[in-house]
Amino acid sequence: MLLASGAALFGGLRYGHRRVSRSADPSGPLSDGAKGLITRAWAGLDPAKVLDVHVHVLGTGAGGTGCFVGPRMSSLSSPIEYLKFSIYEQASGVTDSDQCDVQYLDRLIGLMKTQRPHGRALLLAFDQFHDADGKAVKEDTEFFTPNQYVLQLAARHPELFVPCASVHPYRADAVEALTAAVEAGAVAVKWLPNAMNIDPSSPRCDAFYAAMKALRVPLLSHAGEEKAVHAEERQRLGNPLHLRRPLEHGVKVVVAHCACLGQNPDLDAPEASRPWVDNFELFTRLMDEPKWAGLLFGEISAMTIVNRIGKPLQRVLRDPKLQARLMNGSDYPLPALNVLMQTRAVEQQGFITAEERGWLNEIDQHDPLLFDFVMKRTLRLRENGQEHRLADALFTFPPDVFARLT
Fold first, then answer.
1. What is the value of pTM for the model shown?
2. Which structural domain range is residue 174 located in?
3. pLDDT by residue (tens digit) across 121-155?
4. Neighbouring residues of 64: CB distance < 8 A, sequence distance ≥ 6
5. 399 assigned to some structural domain
6. How many structural domains comprise the chain?
């Protein structure tokens, strides 16, 4: 019954799919209003300094990329996970799974090149799940994007892409793999602890942190609950307070999504009576600790999707001190998912007007990546006669974080 239900749902969403992910075919040319919104979005920004710090590149290994998707997401033995990846493919312009890698990349490059002007994207590698002994476990890996593939793409398209490595710190060769990736051009390291089985507070990461500091590369780490991958039993690894350990080693840490989803135990409270606290509150607690100034940062990808939008975004908009330590990310391909990116919810929260929503929906039909950027440049919070927006600097890469990029 579960298989049949999953297959039926898959068929309904994949082939009657305009409500789930965006069509690659716009219904017509952009209106003057939509064009004007794009022009205003770029006002005050130097495209050479604009960096989207959260862009995924996925594949199934077609063409020898080395990528793969784990068994749960590539087999009907797990219908929901299979459906999930099928929707990701669809959102990324993939129509033939056998050509997934090529079509995914062609779509991403096409979106960026047709933007006038355009910034660059930090392309994220994604290491495998590793067990406590540092051995890769393919059957528990959601997806794998090797460092070499991301490095090759960035070298081929330096005007579009900047490479970000991903190395599991439990690997026996972790420091060597990190060093090789950085020497080849990687400017940062990406972790998703909940999916990769990484405890950022573990002493086994210390040698890796020492190497990161010496190599001057920041850690871009997911924090908070993770809904995009199967990780329910490992959600506690996403506790933002675990990130104190790399900070104590002098590593610059960028917290993905500002940890704005879910709750975790308050590790600062007595163990016998620890309350559960919103992950965003734990993140802002770290940001408020003076000793992490210059080391701890955040990025705002996914903060406008339907299950995250609300109080965290309000806090970011009204707090210029917090914004000064944040940067922009899209979490592509998520902006191409209607089920997650609902402009009606953004309008209902008062962040955009009905007219702006119409223009944004037009832009979205042409380019969901541009749509995400323009929407964030359009967001505002009006209260007490004041209007709060995201600062220009939030959309440009901070040289003190990406030292190797500068």
1. 0.92
2. 61-340
3. 999 999 999 999 999 999 999 899 999 999 999 99
4. none
5. no
6. 1
